[in-house]
Design brief:
By secondary structure, the chain is α/β, with parallel strands linked by helices. The chain has 8 helices and 12 strands.
């Protein structure tokens, strides 16, 4: 899952990026409204969630959000608002924000809200994603198979996390690349095949299906 952070205060931006990365997201950042709008508006930058500060230089966050929404960008957006500025929250939600947090905030709360946004965008009600014997707990970043903990590298986790959020759907290699790597990461499309091969060795047989010429699909085993 890939998250965009648009925040001009360097300390907050860095803390957000560090916490989100530690939680297993690929993170891109922008420190002004124009760059933030550009990143979130690109077809090749499919963000699974955006954290958008409203007080931004060059273009304010509300304008950024309105432009995205009028251009049909549907990714979940959490806005960061100044304390006690209730009309900013109202304006943000009316402009298409999915959630908000007031500064200062607790990082744990922000991470929980981001998880919930991504989950709901994929139509999942629970924090645990289940496919057959495989359970992925999005709160703990933990995967179990028939109750046994599974050791995964961070990129293996990202691939499985994306597939588990899109069960039964064909996910292309380029989808996976776009959602597991940040922009400045040296991307190599062959690595996706390597991650899939490693995951297959660790997961129940047949869980990750290859759809010839199109990509991969997570299939729950027939009971
Ligand atoms: Ca600000």
């Amino acid at each position: 899952m890939r998250v965009l952070v648009v925040e001009d205060e360097p300390t907050i931006c860095r803390q957000l990026a560090e916490a989100l990365t530690a939680t297993g997201y690929a993170v891109d950042t922008a420190n002004n409204g124009i760059d933030g709008h550009f990143l979130g508006n690109e077809d090749c930058q499919p963000f699974d969630a955006v954290i958008l500060d409203l007080g931004l230089p060059q273009m304010d966050g509300l304008s950024v959000l309105k432009k995205w929404r009028s251009a049909g960008r549907k990714m979940p957006v959490l806005i960061l608002t100044a304390r006690d500025n209730w009309h900013e929250k109202v304006a943000g939600i009316d402009a298409g924000a999915d959630d908000y947090l007031t500064k200062p905030f607790h990082m744990e709360e922000l991470l929980a809200r981001v998880r919930a946004l991504i989950r709901r965008a994929g139509g999942h009600a629970s924090a645990e994603l289940i496919c057959g014997a495989v359970v992925l707990d999005t709160r703990l970043n933990r995967v179990t198979v028939a109750g046994q903990a599974l050791a995964l590298t961070s990129h293996e986790y990202r691939v499985l996390d994306y597939l588990m959020h899109h069960p039964g759907q064909v996910v292309s290699r380029s989808d996976l690349i776009e959602h597991i790597y940040a922009q400045d990461f040296d991307r190599d499309s062959n690595t996706v095949e390597v991650f899939i091969a490693r995951l297959r060795k660790k997961l129940p047989e047949g869980l990750i299906e290859t759809v010839r010429g199109l990509g991969y699909r997570l299939v729950a085993p027939a009971k």
